[in-house]
Structure formats: C-alpha cells, structure tokens
C-alpha cells in the first residue's frame, strides 16, 4: 500500500501545529504518527479518489473568505442588536457520492458562522442546516451547493 505525500505531509503539519513548542523529537514522532495514520486511513478517507490540489486550494480560499465575511456579518448583527433575525431550517439535497465527502461539506457549513450542520441523512442524501439569519431557504441551499459542493466534487475527482 502506497502512502500519498499530500496525506502524510498534511498530517505531519497538523501534528506540528498541535505541539506547544516544536522540537526535533516531536517532529520525528510526528513523522512516524503521520506515516502510520496516512497508511491506515488514506484509502478509506478518500474513497479511492485522487485529491486535486488546485481545486483544494480554491476551496480552502473560498471557505476562509466566507468565514471572515460571516464573522463580520455576525459582528454587525450583535453590535446593531438586530431583532430582525430570520432563523430557518434548510434541507440541502447533496450530489456528493459518499459519506466522507458529505461529512467534509457538513464541517465546512458548521465552520461558517451563522450556519450549523445538524443532520446528515445517508439514505436521502440530505444535509439539514440551521441558519441564524436566512431570508430564502432555496437560495441558501443553492449557495451551499454552488460554493462548496461543486468544488468538493472537483477536489476529489
């Protein structure tokens, strides 16, 4: 079984970020742990698909931008003490072929302030999202599909 470099390197970088004060010993231990985890989990986590780097970078940039924009929107709602919040439950039907990719989408939605993934139904391929301020449920579902799901399909093509 071949361990792919992006998995290994990503796991090692995450290990190093978790270390309080990186040292040579923790770096070497991180190499071992990253290699073992990548060896055991990479084929299952990717579903046998190849990870495409450019769409991944676009997805990460888009998520980072949306997190910042949503934080600013939430700050303005709090500071202006907006009483016009329109909380909604939104069902998003998914085209993603397998559970690991759907879980990544659910995590992205939950990372964005103002939205929370509540349920992921494997049978109906639906993601239930709670939105703190949503005027149009269909527009939010369409935004999630066009901004995130479409790029996830490209990333794991």
Automatic annotation (TrEMBL):
Annotated keywords: Cell membrane, Membrane, Transmembrane, Transmembrane helix
InterPro entries attached to this UniProt entry: Cation_antiport_E
Subcellular location: Cell membrane
GO cellular component: plasma membrane
Membrane-spanning ranges: 12-42, 62-80
Highest taxon, organism lineage: Bacteria
GO molecular function per UniProt: monoatomic cation transmembrane transporter activity
Membrane topology: Multi-pass membrane protein
Main location: membrane
Keyword Cell membrane attached: yes
Keyword Hydrolase recorded: no
Family: Belongs to the CPA3 antiporters (TC 2.A.63) subunit E family.
Protein name: Multicomponent K+:H+ antiporter subunit E
Species: Niveibacterium umoris
């Amino acid at each position: 079984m071949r361990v792919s470099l992006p998995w290994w390197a990503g796991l090692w970088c995450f290990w190093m970020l978790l270390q309080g004060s990186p040292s040579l010993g923790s770096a070497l231990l991180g190499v071992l742990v990253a290699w073992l985890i990548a060896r055991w989990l990479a084929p299952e986590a990717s579903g046998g698909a190849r990870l495409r780097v450019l769409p991944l970078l676009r997805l990460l940039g888009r998520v980072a931008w949306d997190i910042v924009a949503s934080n600013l929107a939430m700050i303005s709602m709090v500071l202006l003490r907006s009483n016009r919040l329109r909380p909604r439950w939104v069902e998003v039907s998914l085209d993603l072929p397998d559970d690991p990719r759907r879980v990544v989408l659910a995590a992205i939605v939950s990372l964005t302030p103002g939205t929370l993934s509540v349920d992921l139904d494997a049978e109906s391929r639906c993601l239930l999202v709670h939105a703190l301020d949503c005027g149009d449920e269909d527009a939010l579902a369409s935004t999630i599909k066009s901004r995130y799901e479409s790029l996830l399909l490209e990333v794991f093509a």
